[in-house]
Amino acid sequence: MKTVKVLPKGQITIPKDVRKHMGIKEGDTLVIEKDNDKVVLKKGKTIFDYAGTLPDIGMSIKEMRKKAIKEAAKDRA
Prior knowledge:
GO terms for molecular function: DNA binding. The chain has one domain. The protein is α+β, with helices and mostly antiparallel strands. Strands 1-2 form a two-stranded antiparallel sheet. 30% of the residues lie in helices and 16% in strands. The longest helix is centred in the last third of the chain and has 16 residues, at 61-76.
């Protein structure tokens, strides 16, 4: 168990051995969750973590955006 001090702006320093074990580097995004009386920090995922997980639907981002806007307009009508 490690103890850290909360600084005036609510910041904490994650101990070096914990950062190393979790692969946390400067600039990484962490997810913070409340779990009853606990605070849980998890390493956040980036868009690159999802690369290759979606099927190729043969549509560009621009085409998908146009389709989404068109569908949203239909839903509002």
